[in-house]
Write a structure and sequence with these properties.
The chain is 44% helix and 28% strand. The chain is built from two helices and eight strands. The strands form two sheets. Strands 3, 4, 5, 7 and 8 form a five-stranded antiparallel beta sheet that branches. The protein has a three-stranded antiparallel beta sheet with strand order 1-2-6.
């Protein structure tokens, strides 16, 4: 058999196509990208994440501290408000108490001065008498009276008895006298009792009829050796108390 009768085979080297090369390059690029992202996340993002977490914890801690401080300040403000109201109330009560004490001291000083005038060395000694009679308007149309009785003639004796008075004035254009019973708006009213060694102030209230204008007060003291009767002009004032 001749050489030309055998089939001929030729070995041809197969080269990769362009598409295969592009896919390979794309895969390598994707893998490189993943590796780069992992490297960045490992060396950059992960350390910063820990730092961010630490900063967040610090912020949360400061926030809790500020909330606690705010709560303490709120409680302190509430306490100070209550304390301020208590202080104001106590101050008002103290001022009222001081005003009452001032009035009491003024009254005691007036009592002492009055007593000194009665029993002083230069004061003339007198038996049972009416020192003054004063009136002040009261609610409901009533009149409060203060009638002061004195006795300095016998300093060891006690004066006892009853006091009545009548009010003289004008009613309906004519002179009129309002007696003790009419002043109390009932009949058979007992006189006001008194009992003192040096002086005493008698207090009470009476009613004057409508349309009556008071001008004078006539006071009658009974119970001693002889009754005492004295007249005073109608006077609106305030006098001190007695002993």
């Amino acid at each position: 058999m001749s050489r030309s009768s055998f089939p001929r085979y030729q070995i041809v080297e197969q080269r990769p196509s362009r598409r295969g090369r592009w896919l390979a390059l794309t895969g390598l690029a994707w893998a490189g990208t993943l590796a780069g992202v992992w490297f960045w996340a490992t060396h950059t993002a992960a350390p910063r994440l820990g730092q961010v977490r630490q900063e967040l914890a610090q912020v949360q801690s400061r926030l809790r501290q500020q909330q606690g401080e705010l709560q303490r300040l709120s409680q302190r403000e509430s306490t100070l408000g209550v304390s301020d109201r208590i202080s104001r109330t106590a101050n008002q009560e103290l001022q009222a108490s001081l005003a009452e004490r001032d009035e009491e001291i003024a009254g005691l000083r007036a009592d002492v001065a009055f007593y000194e005038r009665l029993v002083g060395a230069t004061a003339p000694r007198r038996g049972l008498s009416v020192h003054l009679a004063e009136f002040n308007r009261a609610p409901g149309g009533a009149w409060q009276y203060q009638i002061t009785l004195t006795q300095t003639l016998n300093r060891g004796a006690i004066s006892e008895g009853q006091m009545r008075f009548a009010v003289e004035g004008v009613r309906g254009g004519q002179l009129a006298t309002i007696g003790w019973d009419e002043l109390h708006q009932q009949a058979g009213v007992a006189g006001q009792a008194y009992s003192f060694r040096y002086f005493q102030q008698l207090d009470g209230s009476v009613m004057l009829p409508g349309g009556f204008t008071p001008q004078r007060v006539k006071v009658l003291l009974s119970g001693g050796d002889s009754p005492v009767e004295q007249a005073f002009d109608w006077k609106l004032a305030t006098s001190a108390g007695g002993k």
